[in-house]
Amino acid sequence: MMNRQAFFLGCVIPLRFPGIEVAARRVFSQLGIEHIDLEGYSCCPEPVILGLTDREMALAISARNLALAEKAGADLIVLCNGCYEALVEADDALRHDETMKARVDQLLASIGTRYEGKIQIKHFIEFLHEDVGLERIREAITRPVEVPVALHYGCHLFRETRHLDTWRKPRMMKELVEAMGARCVDYGLEQLCCGFPISQFDKNAALKERLLPKLKALSKTNAEALAFCCPACLNQFETGQGAVGDLGADVARYPCVHVLELLAMSFGVQPAELCLDYRSGSTKEFFECFWG
Amino acid sequence: MSVENLLSGGASIRVGPSSLVKREKAGLPKVPPLASSNDDQLKEFKDLVVRTGFDKRAGFDWGKGKLRYK
Q1: B positions 4-63 inside 8 Å of A (CB)
Q2: What is the ipTM of this complex?
Q3: Which is the most buried residue in A127, B31, B37, B54, by most CB within 10 A?
Q4: pTM, to two decimals
């Protein structure tokens, strides 16, 4: 374990949702947690399609990212579910698969670097829950989010390499959102995938078989917003809700908020600071209405 | 998500002008700390990909920055 933290921002947050990056920086600063940028990092790489297409390539790219953190003397706080899975599973594979470890070591040596497995990799939800603690977070909240919110955990949040309890991090996410004052609304399909991986092959199937059942289930609740901790899932919902309507489905559209945006606002960060102009749907209106 | 973006720039999303404008408006450094922000880091990333042979298996044309089937 290192004594400082580096953000692993991934690709989607800094390039599509910079407001989430702003929220992350503000939340961690307000909690007094020093964080550095991981200079020169690349795509994690994406664990479902690329990770399955070429495991050796995927592990080598992940290992280079982990080596950058190790060289900087920093543990990693990962802001994206997919990146979390790619990096944690690479770290785990390099600890347990000697043949692959030898091959990846050889590849890293060819570019003059190495990874020794000395760093800790945590999802931001895990870090905030375990290392910061809900009590400290509650103390920092100046504007409780007292609205009914439905959660979409995202498939990768259920991935565990060292624990058997796959609900460990999803439960942490729920407790974190509840610590902000929100009432988490159950809708029964929390574990269903958002459809993003399927959409790479068949957009309509992703909308009809994944997004639509979730939206129909949500319409039977009093949820006023959907909260995510994965930017890819958030993007799938935010853009997909309009497309589902184009397919003829009559379902309500929900504001899509990232947990870090919600947390930043509950810490007193104004909506204008969260770069919400570029978001589709009613996300900006949700934040402005809440702020009053 | 695109293999072409990954191999050309080290990120699954292209670092295009609209992303940079959004970042500036958000008060963030215009260029994120991705490998593409530093020539040496990007070269290191590309060298690693070449060593794995993935570029050949994927049929990536480095000159055009595209997959050859296109």
Answers
A1: 6, 10-13, 15, 19, 22-23, 25-28, 32-35, 37-38, 40-41, 44-45, 47-49, 51-54, 57-58
A2: 0.96
A3: B54
A4: 0.95
